[in-house]
Amino acid sequence: MLRRGYLGEPVLATIDMRAIPHWQSWARDYDQVTLLFMSIHHLDSFRYLFGDPESVYASSRPDPRSTFPHKDGVVLYILEYANGLRAAAWDDVWTGPAREGAADDIYIKWRVEGTAGMARGTLGWPGYPARVPSTIDFTTQQQPNCWISPRWPQVWFPDAFEGTMGELLSSLAEGRESVISGRDNLNTIALVEACYRSLAEHRPVRPAEIKEAQA
């Protein structure tokens, strides 16, 4: 949709996560949790769709449910792009006392607004192990006054790994660098580290600061 111009110039992109991850036992040995193990996927998605932001501002509070020491439980962050685009997410791993006796309201929604259209959808993984497909709906000035809603039966696990693992194996067989570049992934790690510096220093941080410090 972005490449074909259905949405025009992106204006605002958001992810609204109200879901409870399973923190593996080894992850509890870190004092870094949500940004490193959950938000990294959202930050990587923003980078994939829109490129590298100029800066990021992050804010966090501990998750009441996670009893091990950590500094990033419920996390909110804003990415600022040079062209004016803003991308933001709130990764709410608490979601209220959904496992402590209250009713739950668990979901992940995303939305991209552009100058010529808008896309919205859901991610299905909070329903795991039930097979809950992700969804997408979009509207565009090229087809006015309607929503377009393609659907598919595949789900995030294991179906979503078919393409990524297939590409990796093909690159090994063909002796070429994978399009899923480990070198490019370093830029996502730099963005995660910029979020942690933002938490610590209460200011917007440029990912370039992280990369310059490691040069």
What is this entry, summarized?
With about 220 residues, this protein is of the alpha+beta class. The chain has a single domain (about 10-210), classed as Dihydrodipicolinate Reductase, domain 2 (2-Layer Sandwich).
Percent strand equals 25-35%
Which architecture name does CATH use? 2-Layer Sandwich
Could you name the CATH class? Alpha Beta
Shape assignment? globular
Write structural notes for this entry.
The protein has 215 residues and is an alpha+beta fold. It has one domain: Dihydrodipicolinate Reductase, domain 2 (2-Layer Sandwich). 27% of the residues lie in helices and 26% in strands. The chain is built from four helices and eight strands. An eight-stranded mixed sheet has the order 2-3-4-1-5-6-7-8. The two termini are 36 Å apart.
